[in-house]
Write a structure and sequence with these properties.
Oligomer: single chain
Distance between the termini: 29 Å
Number of helices: 15
Order of helices and strands: EHEEHEHHEHEEEEEHEHEHHEHEHHHHHE
Number of strands: 15
Strand content: 15-25%
Bound molecules: adenosine-5'-triphosphate, magnesium ion
Structural class: alpha/beta
Shape: elongated
Length: about 400
């Protein structure tokens, strides 16, 4: 019989009445992800999603790896189906887990019985199969407390399954169950990590990028699209709202005191992002700001930039060290793209002596020289939309 993939559902199991909704959403995501690797049947039973290949040529390794990054799944294993019979379980374990059984020194068998009509209890089945394996593999000793290998048997409604310990999944909550937020994605290291972290809490993202052609190049835009593309493995398909920012930056440079350039600019970013958020049914903004990292990321700077937005601003990396952020960026696969050397619009008009302890009154006064409404309208009218979707493997 077939090898299948079992995905163990995470926190959502706890969520009572919403569980069906969560499961349905996750099943849809799993279906979308595995279709790139062949024809699979996907269904949920008893807090586990079953992914069954329907053809010989299904790429099981590819599907397994793709599912490892799906939020809402806490553990995954490949399992072998067998008839629901105690000796069939023994034979299946011997053939399917032979390599692990031959290599381990200690083991135990853990059976779970969802089908209560099965003639043995879970304990009886574990003891029977454990005894048989103990005899068949002289290298093995039973250790029920701290075994090197746990042979897991599941007696489900439709079949029995044999598998070893699950590998860790991505955890978190299925993307979309907690609504939508607009994330400000630059080409840097921090904002892709911020996107990842918020998506992990079940949030769907609209992406916003500010683009200052010709001060920032076409390559800088391509880089952001590539980062977004890389994030789709976790976040699913997304739309990038690329907002022309040149006129605003030039106006700020013309009319505002140099030491406030960055802060005025960041207030425009927040206003425009909120406008996009409102149009796309988002309930929060997300940034990659980190406390104390640069002049515009002091508490006072966050206060004056946040003051123009009424939506909550989520800053998931705010308390992380750069090293921790980099480690995460490497793990999720965005780091190498983030360090490509293209300039970001923030770096183009950086003041020599940025104000680190600004007040709201100072900012509001500086902005009186600007036609905020007109600048916003023109920027919003020039938005370019780029869609990114999970791509087929090479
Ligand atoms: P990152 O590594 O994410 O670029 P950073 O340390 O360079 O962060 P800043 O340049 O001050 O920090 O930007 C802080 C946050 O503002 C970014 O994490 C991002 O959320 C947002 N941001 C900055 N520049 C842009 C941009 N061009 N488009 C969209 N968002 C931006
Ligand atoms: Mg940056």
């Amino acid at each position: 019989m077939e090898e299948i993939i079992l995905c163990k559902l995470g926190e959502m199991v706890l969520k009572g009445l919403n569980r069906r909704n969560f499961e349905d959403r996750l099943v849809k995501t799993v279906k979308r992800r595995v279709k790139h690797y062949g024809q699979f049947k996907v269904y949920v039973r008893q807090s586990t999603i079953y992914v069954e290949p329907q053809a010989e040529d299904c790429d099981m390794d590819g599907a397994f790896d793709a599912l490892k990054v799906v939020f809402g799944i806490v553990g995954l294993s490949r399992a072998k189906a067998c008839p629901k019979d105690k000796d069939a379980f023994v034979d299946c374990a011997k053939s399917y887990l032979d390599a692990q059984l031959s290599a381990a020194k200690t083991f135990k068998v853990e059976a779970k019985r969802a089908d209560k009509s099965f003639p043995l209890t879970s304990i009886e089945l574990s003891q029977y199969v454990g005894g048989e394996l103990d005899e068949a593999y002289p290298n093995l000793q039973v250790d029920v407390h701290n075994p090197e290998l746990t042979v897991r048997l599941e007696v489900r409604d439709y079949a029995g399954y044999v598998h070893a310990d699950p590998e860790p999944g991505a955890g978190g909550l299925p993307v979309g169950i907690n609504g939508k937020a607009a994330a400000l994605l630059s080409g840097g290291i921090d904002s892709p990590v911020a996107c990842y972290m918020i998506a992990k809490r079940g949030i769907n993202l609209e992406l916003v990028h500010f683009f200052s052609y010709p001060y920032t190049s076409e390559e800088a835009k391509e880089k952001v699209i590539q980062l977004a593309q890389e994030l789709t493995a976790y976040c699913g398909r997304m739309t990038i709202h690329i907002i022309p920012f040149t006129e605003i930056q030039e106006e700020i440079r013309r009319a505002c005191p140099e030491n406030l350039f960055t802060l005025v600019m960041r207030r425009f970013m927040m206003r425009l992002s909120q406008a996009v958020a409102e149009q796309t049914d988002c309930k929060a903004l997300v940034t990659g700001e980190c406390l104390g990292q640069v002049a515009s990321q002091t508490l006072e700077a966050m206060q004056v930039t946040g003051a123009v937005a009424s939506m909550p601003i989520l800053r998931p990396v705010v308390g992380m060290d750069k090293e921790e952020i980099i480690r995460t960026a490497r793990r999720i696969g965005t780091f190498d793209t983030s360090i490509l050397p293209y300039e970001d619009c923030c770096t183009v008009f950086t003041p020599r002596h940025p104000k680190t302890h600004p007040t709201l009154a100072e900012l509001e006064e500086a902005e009186q020289a600007l036609d905020i409404q007109g600048l916003m309208e023109r920027a919003l009218a020039g938005i370019e939309l780029v869609k990114v979707t999970v791509q087929d493997p090479d």
